[in-house]
Amino acid sequence: MSTQNALSLSGVTKNFGKAEIIRGVDLDIRENERHVIIGPNGAGKSTLFNLISGRMDVTAGEIKLFGNSISGMSPHKVNRMGLSRSFQVTNLFPNMTTLQNLKCALLWDMKHRYAFWKLVNRQHAVTEKAEQLMEQLNLVHRRDVPAGLLTYAEQRALEIGTTIGSGAKVLLLDEPTAGMSRTEADEVVELIRQVTRDCTLVMVEHDLGVVFNLADRISVLVYGEVIACDTPEAVRANAAVQEAYLGTEVH
Amino acid sequence: MSTVQEERLAAQAGGGAQIWVRQLWPWVVAAILAILAPTVFSSGHDIHMLSSMGIMVVFALSYNMLLGNTGLLSFGHAVYFGLGAYIAMHALRYTNDAVLDGTGYGIPIELIPLIGGIAGLGFGIIFGAVSTRRAGVVFAMISLGIVGLVEASSLAFTGFFGGEAGLFGDREDVNSLFGIEYSRSISVYYLVVAWAFIAAVAMFVLRKTPLGWMANAVRDNPERAQFVGYNTQMVRFLQFCLSAFFAGIAGGLFVLVEEIVTDEAVGFLLSGEVLLAAYIGGIGFFLGPVIGAILVVYLESNLSAISDAWLLYFGVLFIGVVMFAPMGLVGIAFQQWMNFRSGGWRGTLLARGYCTAAALVALLGFICIVEMSYHYLRSWNPSQPMTLFITDVNVTTATPWLISIAIFAAGLGALLFHAKPMLRRAADTAGGQQ
Amino acid sequence: MLETIVFSLLNGLLYGMLLFMLSSGLTLIFGMMGVLNFAHASFYMLGAYFAYTMGLYTGFWVALFLAPILVGALGALVERWGLRHVHQHGHVPELLFTFGLAYVIEELVRLFYGTIPMDYRMPDSLNFPLFSLFGTNYPAFRVFVLVIAVLMFIGLFILLKKTRAGLIIQGSLSRPDMVSALGHNVPQVFMWVFAFGTALAALGGVVGGIHFVTEPGMAFMMGPIVFVVVVLGGLGSIPGALIASMIIGILQTFVLSVDFSIAHIGLWFGYAVPPDHFFATLFYLDSTRIAPVLPFLILVLTLIFRPRGIMGKREA
Ligand SMILES: Nc1ncnc2c1ncn2[C@@H]1O[C@H](COP(=O)(O)OP(=O)(O)O)[C@@H](O)[C@H]1O
Ligand SMILES: [Mg+2]
After folding, report:
1. Element (H or E) spanning B309, and its range?
2. At residue B391, what are phi and psi to the nearest 5 degrees?
3. Which of A148, B306, C31, C214 is surrounded by the fewest CB atoms within 10 Å?
4. Quick one: which ligand is closest to A56's CA?
5. Which domains does chain C have, with CATH numbers?
6. DSSP codes of every residue in B88-148
């Protein structure tokens, strides 16, 4: 495992009005590691993702992606620098089919950009890649169904597919298995393990089984602060964590 | 039809050759219709109407690149049509002068619409840069401001716009690439048809390019579009510029057909008209604005001769579409067609016929009331008999009013309280049997 | 010179007050319902025509009260049977509905009244010069319009600040989603606000129809300007609407009444563009010709550089 930092947050703070939601987070995420963030509901995990991905501006502090500052950058620029994210609440193009959603996720990365002189459906490389992804996601039979009509679990899978499809170097997945049955969740975790073999993963997850199984390192976020960041074993043994999180009600 | 639906139909149809046939035949039919139309509509007035339809089709399609494809509601699309027309007019006048003086060749008449398009593109770049940074209401209001700005300026800058009288040119003192005389209006009609086809095909194909896809994406979920790497402002801006280009082509064609441009070409009214045309036809379908444009021009050039109330009918039609059929006329037809194909008409045919008949009766009553009102309130001598469809009536007596109101009430009553429930029941039983 | 300035100021104030009568209702409706009512100026026109017709039977003073109430009732009907229905389809159909409504209202007015201007005049009781300035008489009617507008502003202020209904409206101006949370019947609140807003526009029409002309084009004349005022003032802000009305009213009047062009400045510095120069049109352009361009320029610039306007809390 390389020791270069893929993402590094220093003193990141976010206020909504007077409410301090993220209070000075320092966090280094190494290249190619699988990093899971856990914490109670309302701790600010999704907000942290929003800050990293450019959906929201930080109030203070700096975020670096492979050494380049990305705080205050607009989402599409962050994305183009190799960071891709999924949403806790499914966020797709509801009128487009499964295949079309995947193609949309691939277009920019495969250098088609704003082209208006070529047809999407003639770009066989895009189609191939999208179909390959569809196979990985087990969605082949739903190829031509609009995303809005897919089942919840299928939408979640597609959400992950659009996130990982473009071959980003850093992936942020926000509760990818939330609301899934045991078997569905296992499949998704297996998929995540596969596609993150050579990229960096930052993931929010509530299911501790999944967490300890998948994570190289775990960060614990409570009330906008990282109270622990270590290997699964160390976190499990950490008294503060046990008190603040593991020992009490688990979400 | 939205891209998704087309794709799905194409997927159902299967094989490659079949897709091509499925996609090509509407174009072939349209081309045949356009070419044969002047044999049916052959008077001078009719040919002029056909040319106007061609222009409006291009204009409405270009409008729908914004509203339908990108979700941008513009109240000022005539700016690009009109400014394109003015620049094209200057090109035409320059050519007229060159040919009359014998000093030069000028610009071939067939290429003048292209000049309009380039001008539209240029102004699209300028105004698009300031207006497409936002979508939604802000965009709509900026478009309103820009059209006001340009219309008001057109009267201030008389040198370029020709003031109230506008600018004239003629299509006789020009050169043609193919040696065609365009003094006859039928020749110009075919030029319009040729350009309209080029533009329509281009706009159709544009929807299938990466930019066209992302325009839909930005319309439906701008946030997600950003997170797959797209700058939503840029997508809107590019769509806007391309749309302005095609609007400019329509403006250039307008110059060749009318041989005059006035400030109306850049104004509020034309901007509103193209919005009405696209929306009435159906903004979710490629064919929608085409049908809408043809209908609007047809009503405008025929209904206005038959009835003083045509603008009222027009407004009521528009409100009706907005309230009861937001997918437009083509949307209704498509829905009924899908319903028919899936067997939804089985067992309900009678009720459907009854619904339609009741609606038509109500419409008849409504038209009678409106026409009589116009006669009563607007003519010099209301007691003079007026021709209403087949009979002459005296609107100062009560009888025709009572009859008209009775027709209207009977139609509407039957539709709402008898025919519609009947259709619902019929649909339920038919559905139950399946 | 002083004379011109004083009169321009007075007339600008008057025009601004008329604009305020229209824009306060529009800004209320937008702020609460999110509907940019294209037909707002049409209700202003209806106010003028109704007052004219009623005035023939009841006299001006009764019509002054009745016409706005009648138009308000009409507004309620439009909201109840039209807008509410399209509301479910989203904001664009709402906007388009009011757009079509403006078309239909104008046509109906043409149908009932024809295209020629109405002979709608001020009542004799107001037809006298109130005072004279620089030897020119200032008509009492104009002062009356000012008084009506000021009363309206005070009335609105009290309504919004001191009554329960006002508190609901105010609350929902800043947080429309909160109204239903507080257990109010949102559709009914919308209907009342729409009725109230259109009635305010009609009141503007009752006096505006006399001050300007009462003809079918009057809605189209006013419509865009009212939008400019509402955007400049900040959507949903009544004080903003007042300030913006004054700015636009006075600016428009000044530009129209002073004879001015860039050439004047140029000549001060002893510089002139030759008449056949490319920029000559711009250089010699008379300010009276710039006047109609000005509001739209302000609209576009506001939306680009400050979409929330002068006093708006939320962006458009
Ligand atoms: N846009 C926002 N405005 C105000 N408060 C917000 C906003 N987004 C999130 N919050 C608040 O921030 C806190 C953290 O939310 P979130 O990041 O979604 O938590 P988590 O994902 O850890 O469950 C919550 O209390 C939430 O109410
Ligand atoms: Mg969360």
Report:
1. none
2. -115, 160
3. B306
4. 1
5. 2-305 (1.10.3470)
6. HHHHHHHHHHHHHHTS-----GGGHHHHHHHHHHHHHHHHHHHHTTS-HHHHHHHHHHHHH
Distance CA B173, CA B189 (A): 18
Q: Which ligand is closest to the CA of A87, given by its number?
A: 2
The identity of residue B378, as a single letter, is: R
Reading phi first (left if > 0) and then psi (alpha if -120 to 50, else beta), residue B276 is in alpha
Show residues of chain B in contact with C95, CB under 8 Å.
Answer: 73, 137, 140
Distance B219 CA to ligand 2 centre (A): 26
Segments of chain A assigned E as strands: 5-16, 19-30, 34-38, 60-65, 68-69, 83-85, 170-174, 200-204, 217-222, 225-230
C66 SS3 class:
helix
Separate counts of helices (H) and strands (E) for chain A: 9, 10
CA C296 to chain centre: 15
- Alpha carbon of residue A164 to chain centroid: 9
Whether the predicted pLDDT of C183 surpasses 70: no
Q: Is A72 in the pocket of ligand 1 (CB under 6 A)?
A: no
- Cα angle B71, B75, B81 (rounded to 5 degrees) comes to 100
Per-residue pLDDT at B431 exceeds 70: no
What is the per-residue pLDDT across C254-290, written as a single tens digit (0 to 9) for each? 888 777 777 777 777 777 777 767 667 677 777 777 7
CA of residue B402 relative to chain centroid, distance: 37
Residue nearest to atom 26 of ligand 1 (CA): A42
- H and E: helices and strands count for chain C: 15, 2
Pick from A53, A87, A95 the residue to mutate for testing the B interface (most B CBs within 10 Å).
A95
Q: How many CB atoms lie within 10 A of CB B340?
A: 13
Nearest beta carbon to residue A79 from set B4, B205, B229: B229
Confidence (pLDDT) at B158: 82
Strand duo A19-30 + A5-16: pairing? antiparallel
What do you get for the CA distance between the two ends of chain C, in Å? 40
Residue A216 CA to residue A197 CA, distance in Å, equals: 12
CATH architecture of the domain covering A5-244: 3-Layer(aba) Sandwich (3.40)
Strands A60-65 and A217-222: unpaired
pLDDT tens for each residue of B344-383: 777 788 888 888 899 999 999 999 998 888 888 888 888 8
Is the Cβ pair B144, C224 closer than 8 Å?
yes
- Give yes or no for A93 touching B (CB within 8 A): yes
Both tokens of C205, joined, read 């029409």
Q: Identify the CA nearest to C35 among candidates C235, C204, C200.
A: C235
Q: Is the CB of residue A6 below 6 angstroms from any atom belonging to ligand 1? A: no
pTM of the predicted structure, to 2 decimals: 0.91
Longest dimension (CA), chain C: 70
List chain B domain ranges: 1-40, 44-327, 343-433
> What CA dihedral angle connects A151, A153, A157 and A160, to 10 degrees?
110
Ligand 1 midpoint to CA B44 (Å)? 68
User: Which amino acid, residue C216?
Assistant: P
| pLDDT tens profile A93-138 | 999 999 999 999 999 999 999 999 999 999 999 999 999 999 989 8
Q: Looking at residues A11-38, what average pLDDT do you find?
A: 93
Q: Count Cβ atoms within 10 A of the Cβ of residue C7 and give its class: 0-12 exposed, 13-18 middle, 19 or more buried.
A: middle
Confidence of residue C36 (pLDDT cuts 50, 70, 90): confident
For residue B14, is pLDDT > 50? Answer: no
Query: Which residue matches tokens 């993150």?
Result: A196
Tally of residues, chain B? 434
Q: What fold characterizes domain B44-327?
A: ABC transporter involved in vitamin B12 uptake, BtuC (1.10.3470)
Average predicted confidence (pLDDT) for chain C: 85
Asked if the Cβ–Cβ distance from A93 to B221 is below 8 Å, we say yes
